[in-house]
Write a structure and sequence with these properties.
The chain is α/β, with parallel strands linked by helices and 305 residues long. It has eleven helices and eleven strands. It binds glutathione.
Length: 305
């Protein structure tokens, strides 16, 4: 039985990133389906306040954000690597680019798709994406479409020499980051996607190869099983702060950690560890016992107190 438990819902392009990682590594994993919008009491019991997707649990360790999940999966399950071209730094830098690509997609999504959802859901997404100004996004529709086409063109060019994936003949993180946007555009706005990316003939076969990777082996479980596993496990996190921490963080201090981009909730607790690209916070709840929640440093802020 796999020790990986994913807490996520499928309709998210960020969940899709995690699923492709599990696919490349050929892993079996257990799945707790989370709602797409609050209340998300079970998820928040596990994370200490983060309500986004995807979240990965292994025993009493909880990993927030697809980039943290990538790093932890690569560490625990090095075969098959997520970095087939040996380009870990570059492939992870693409997180920033892929998020920008996604912001452009949010404009047509806001104008053409979101209004088909119930009002409560629309309000929730307006809150989640408020730092991106969802109304302004809608108003920038044509400009955003032009950006989507220009970005798609770059992907198409990268594939022009006939390679199967962006960095060669094996799939990796670069593909995973890039794929999440065509995935949501083709699923939610297929006609617009076809029109924007008309003539970019290398894209559809590459997208088909990415989809064919699948998702590893998914085993749905009740949340009670995930809770029981967290309660009976002990975190593997090693306490400590790397020297010269830029924010002078110290083990034991109280911190609140939240994402710098969208509003997906914050986690407050005792700092257990801080490294260059990871911050780990202790969290306790009667459902999960004592767990440690791990977040990336990139794109997250750590506020003392
Ligand atoms: N940087 C994060 C972004 C995650 C994210 O923004 N997920 C969206 C779903 S598309 C989300 O959490 N929305 C709010 C929610 O699901 O409650 C990651 O890579 O995991």
């Amino acid at each position: 039985m796999s020790d990986i438990i994913m807490h996520c819902y499928d309709a998210s392009p960020f969940t899709q990133r995690a699923l492709r990682m599990l696919a490349i590594k050929g892993l079996e994993w257990r799945w707790v389906e989370t709602p797409m919008a609050p209340p998300k009491d079970d998820l928040v019991a596990m994370t200490g306040g983060y309500r986004g997707t995807p979240v990965m649990q292994i025993g009493a360790d909880v990993y927030i954000d697809s980039q943290m999940i990538a790093a932890e999966l690569e560490h625990r399950y090095p075969e098959t690597t997520l970095f087939p071209a040996g380009d870990e730094g570059l492939a992870m830098l693409l997180v920033q680019w892929a998020d920008t690509f996604f912001i452009h997609a949010m404009s047509p999504i806001a104008r053409l798709l979101l209004n088909q959802y119930p009002e409560d859901f629309q309000k929730d997404r307006a809150h989640v994406f408020s730092r991106w100004g969802i109304d302004a996004l809608e108003g920038r529709y044509e400009a955003a479409c032009a950006q989507l086409r220009a970005q798609g063109d770059l992907l198409n060019r990268q594939l022009m020499d006939g390679r199967l994936f962006l960095t060669g003949d094996r799939p990796g993180m670069a593909d995973i980051q890039a794929f999440s946007v065509p995935w949501i555009m083709r699923a939610g706005l297929p006609e617009l996607a076809s029109s924007l990316w008309q003539g970019l003939d290398m894209l559809p076969p590459w997208e088909a190869r990415m989809a064919e990777l699948g998702e590893g082996t998914r085993i749905p479980i009740p949340v009670a099983e995930a809770f029981a596993e967290a309660r009976s496990a002990t975190s593997t996190c090693v306490e400590g702060v790397e020297s010269n921490d830029p924010e002078n963080l110290a083990v034991g201090q109280s911190v609140t950690v939240s994402s710098l981009d969208t509003r997906r909730g914050s986690i407050s607790g005792r700092l257990v560890a801080a490294r260059r690209n990871r911050v780990s916070v202790a969290h306790s709840h009667e459902s999960v016992g004592d767990v440690v929640v791990h977040l990336p440093r990139l794109n997250y802020q750590v506020i003392p107190g």
